[in-house]
Design goal:
Shape: elongated
Radius of gyration: 29 Å
Helix content: 25-40%
CATH architecture of the largest domain: 2-Layer Sandwich
Length: 524
């Protein structure tokens, strides 16, 4: 049972040797892939209850425990050895000795290796070095691992391997396990926060007959029985607002969205969003609620209102800064005047002056109006500079097809986006509940679609009908769960907070391609 046995051998040789050991276990009456094992204790429970006892106290108490987990380290001394076993709560050491287990069971021990899942029971004791350990009196292999852990697995750092084989990443890196535990706690905290404030959690369709709720290129699928093309949800917004019409005045959904866009450190085509809507609220009300939510997350997840991210200290103490988009753009482009912000030709000239634009990007700018060009300038010159939490307000109407126009200036809408660490985290606005205005904006989206805009929304006649029945004044907000997790976990890429991010397929052999199988399916 030595990890050093693998040195100098090919993957095929290691696989075959482990396969033989699985057969040897069967010969000893052990099913290497059994049905289950009831576990009496976890490593975490054992240390919480008994780590305060010294060796003499443990010897007197003779505390029996029963554990199961993956072998992550081993040391063999011929007739005895130590195995480090990890379960969901931590690691604990097993002392396995032939004289205590008997010859037959010790034969099973000798077939165990790093990577195997094992079970053992026996009394607790302390080794000569003082480590709390289990003196095994029973032992068996529950699952035989046919593949070893990768070389230097305890320091697995190759990003491609980590993302493709997340199971190895989770075995190898404690900090990765901590990230996904924190992400789970983040979502639990959000649910508790909204539930306590009278919001109702709901579910809306993931396959939709129209492209709606946001401007994004959709994924298309087909329902065979109905002979109907459907779109994977890009946002649940219009369904959630239908629920406001129906009388659910506070609703939220933690949902999976799908957008047919490129991959980056901030974008994955499949991602998680929180969307919530509150009747009789405005976007300024949601600013206060968002500040309260972030402060709650800070206290629950990191123990306070200050957190480290990308070498910066982020302060979540309310109130957050407020910054109108036009003001931000004028700061970043001092040659522009307030009047220029309404002149598409001037704005386009400024953007085209930026070096490195390809022909496609230049052509795209030609089709944008002044409001869209202001938003593009903000995106390119301001976004990355907003490190501390900042509410950006005063969005142009042309980039906000579902938001209510500002009563002070109808060229803008009552909307904010929250930026932290140079990234958009949240987007909220006072909802447009005027069916006439909404119809006109849908028609403008159709015009864009007819002119080749693949991200424009469809005309949703049923949603207009719902508004005609009367939707109460309301505000709604979407928060990117993945980006929020990046912030609190202090990781640089969205792939670090998604268990199985989308990646290009691995290379396959001709035979494997025919069978739909990766080359990696079988060693050698």
């Amino acid at each position: 049972m030595s990890e050093s046995d693998n040195q100098g051998r090919s993957e095929r040789e290691i696989y075959e040797a482990r396969l033989h050991k699985a057969q040897d276990l069967r010969a000893l009456g052990v099913d290497p892939y059994g049905s289950g094992h009831r576990v009496g204790h976890t490593a975490g429970e054992i240390f919480a209850r008994y780590d305060s006892l010294d060796g003499a106290q443990l010897e007197a108490a003779k505390v029996p425990v029963d554990v199961a987990g993956r072998v992550v380290a081993e040391r063999s001394f011929g007739k005895a050895g130590f195995l480090k076993v990890r379960d969901r709560t931590g690691e604990i050491q097993l002392y396995v000795k032939r004289d205590l287990l008997g010859e037959a069971v010790y034969e099973i021990v000798k077939l165990a290796e790093v990577g195997d899942v094992v079970a053992a029971s026996g009394p607790l004791f302390r080794t000569k070095t003082g480590e709390l350990s289990i003196q095994a009196t029973t032992f068996t292999v529950l699952t035989k691992a046919l593949r070893p852990l990768p070389e230097k697995w305890h320091g697995l750092t190759d990003h491609e391997t980590r993302y493709r084989r997340r199971y190895l990443d989770l075995i190898a890196n404690a900090e990765v396990r901590a990230v996904f535990r924190l992400r789970a706690k983040l979502i639990q905290t959000i649910r508790k926060f909204l539930d306590e404030r009278g919001y109702l959690e709901v579910e809306t369709p993931m396959m939709q007959p129209l492209v709606s709720g946001a401007t994004a290129r959709p994924f298309v699928t087909h329902h065979n029985a109905l002979d109907l093309d459907l779109f994977l949800r890009i946002a649940p917004e219009l369904y959630l607002k239908r629920l406001l019409v129906g009388g659910f005045e506070r609703v939220y959904e933690i949902n999976r969205n799908f957008r047919n866009e490129g991959l980056s450190t901030q974008h994955n085509p499949e991602f998680t969003m929180l969307e919530f809507y509150e009747a009789h609220a405005t976007y300024t009300d949601l600013m206060g609620l968002t500040e309260e939510l972030f402060a709650t997350l800070g206290r629950e997840l990191v123990g306070g209102l200050r957190l480290a991210h990308a070498g910066e200290e982020i302060d979540l103490t309310p109130p957050f800064a407020r910054l109108p988009m036009p003001e931000a753009v004028l700061r970043a482009a001092p040659d522009l005047s307030p009047k220029d912000l309404h002149d598409a030709s001037v704005l386009r000239r400024v953007l085209l002056a930026s070096p490195g634009r390809n022909a496609r990007e230049r052509a795209e700018l030609e089709g944008l109006d002044a409001g869209q060009l202001v938003a593009r300038l903000f995106e390119e010159r301001v976004e990355a500079t907003l490190v501390q939490p900042t509410f950006v307000t005063h969005f142009p109407t042309s980039v906000s097809p579902l938001a209510r126009r500002s009563e002070a200036d109808p060229e803008f809408v009552d909307r904010f986006e929250l930026y932290v660490a140079g990234r958009e985290i949240a987007n909220a606005f006072t909802e447009l509940n005027d069916p006439i205005d909404q119809r006109e904006r849908f028609l403008k989206q159709l015009e864009k679609k007819e002119h080749g805009d693949e991200e424009a929304m469809d005309y949703d006649a049923d949603y207009i009908r719902a508004l005609e029945h009367g939707m109460p004044p309301a505000a709604g907000e979407g928060i990117g769960i993945d980006r929020l997790a990046m912030l609190f976990c202090d990781v640089p890429s969205i792939r670090d907070v998604i268990l199985f991010p989308l990646l290009r397929p691995e290379a396959v052999s001709e035979e494997g391609a025919a069978k739909g199988a990766s080359v990696e399916k079988a060693p050698g």
